[in-house]
Amino acid sequence: MKRKLTSVIVTLITAGLLISCGQTAAGPSEPSSAKGTDKATAAEAGETEAAENQSGKKEDTPIDNQGTDVTETDNGSATATETELSSGKDGGKGQQAPSGQAQSPQEGPPVTDGSLSSAVNSFNWKLLGEMDDKGNLFYSPYSLFSALALTDIAAKGDTKTEIESALSITDLQAIESEMKDYLSLKAAEKSAVLNTANAVWLDKSLKTSDNYETDFVAPAKDYFGGDFFQADFKNGLSQTKQQIKDWVSEKTNGFIPDYESAATGDTMADVLNAVYFYGEWEFPFIASSTAEETFHGLSGDRPAQMMSQKGLNLRYLREKDGISALAFPYRNTNIEMDLFIPAEGRNENISELWGKTRPEEILSALDKAELTSINYLSFPKFQMDVTMDGLTDTLKNMGIQTAFSQNADFSGLAEAMYISSIAHRAKIEVDEEGSRASAVTEAVMEITSAEMDGDIINFIADKPFLYLIRDKETGIILFTGRLNDIN
Predict the structure, then answer these.
(1) pLDDT digits (tens, 9 = 90+) for 71-83
(2) Phi, psi (rounded to 5 degrees) for 234
C-alpha cells in the first residue's frame, strides 16, 4: 500500500477513543501522560496487589464561513461532542503500515444489515483484506468510516454511490441517526467515557455551494457534532497547522501531541474528527507477574514482556475455522479486547487462517460463548504508533474511484472538489492496567483543474495474533490490530 501524502483541501482527522476515569471539562479525561489507575479501583476489580499509577490545549474561536460566531454547546465547548458509554450489562513510533498484496479476510462479500455497527465492521473486513499479512498493524475502522461518512454528506452522483458501497452504507440517513445516538450516549460511571469531537476549518476564499448550509453544514453539526472555523491556508498556513495540531492534542488528551497536518497553501477545507480511548481492564494484571518470555514472531523469536494471570472466567471460543478466541473486558463498559490466535494444533499464521473465515461468524460465536474457566492467560505488553498514509490506492481498490478523480462531485460543500489522498495514524499502548488508543484520519481534498467442563484451558498469545477493541453492546469495532513481531 503506497504511502504518499499529497497536498490538502479537506482534512478529516479522526483521532482516538477515550475511556477514562472521571474528569470533565472539554471532555472527561485522565492525565495526558498517564494511565490513571489507582490502587482502590484495582482492588475493586479483584486485584490485591497495586500497580503503579502512570499518567496542550489551544482554544480556537469557532466561526462560520462568513466569519460570524458559531453558537457554543451547552457546556461551553464549541468543538467537542462528548460520549459516555453506559456500563456493561453483561458483565514503536514511526512504524509503517504493511504494504504489498492483500489477502481477503473472508470468502464472499461482507454481510451487512444496514446498521451502523454492521456497516463499520463490513468496511473493516474489506479494508483488512487489502492489507499485506506481513508486519504489525493497527488502525481504527471506526475513525476511517466516520471520516469518509462525513465526506459522503457532501457527495453526489457516482461519487456518493461508490463511497457508500465501500462503506456498506445502504441508508445514509439511518447511519447518521445511529451515529448521532451513539455519540450522545450517557454513562452511569465516569470511568467509561467515549470522547468524540468534530470540527471543520474552511478557507476564507472558498466559494461554497448555494445550498451548502443545508446540504453539508446542518447534517455535519446535527449528526456528527461538527463545529466550523475560518482559516487562511494561503497566507496563514503555519498558524492554522498549529491550531490543528493543538486541537488534535487536546481532543486525544495529549496522546497524539505531535500530529502534523497535511494542509498546504492550496487547502480549502479541513474536516476533523477526533476520538480517544482509555480503558482499564476489568481484571488488571499484577506488574510483578510480568516476565520476559519468547514471542515467536514472523521475523523470528524475540524477547517480550508477557503479562499473565491465572484463574479467570472469560468468554472463550475453543475453535472455529481453526481459530481460538477470547474476550477480555474493560471495567465499567461494554468495550472489550477480543484476541484471536491459531487453535491448538494449527500451524498456519493467524492472517492465513483469518483470510479463510467469515469474521462476523467468529464474532457471533464469541459473543454467544459461555464463560469458561481460563487456567492461564498470557499476552504481551506492547506499544504501536502506526502511520498509514497514502490510503488512496487502497480505497480505490475497494471501489471508491470517482471521489479521487477529476469527475468527483462534492457539490454539497463546493463545486469542483475531489479527494487527493487519505492518511491514517493510530497509536496504542497495552499494559497491566489497561489500554490507551487513538487514531487520526486525514482526507486531503483539492480543487479539480484543476468447550468442555473440567478442561484445563490456557490461552497464550506468544505468536502472531489479531485483536479488536469492540463495543460489545453495539457491536461496533473501534480498533483493529495484528501483532506479528515484537520490535
Answers:
(1) 333 333 333 444 4
(2) -70, -45
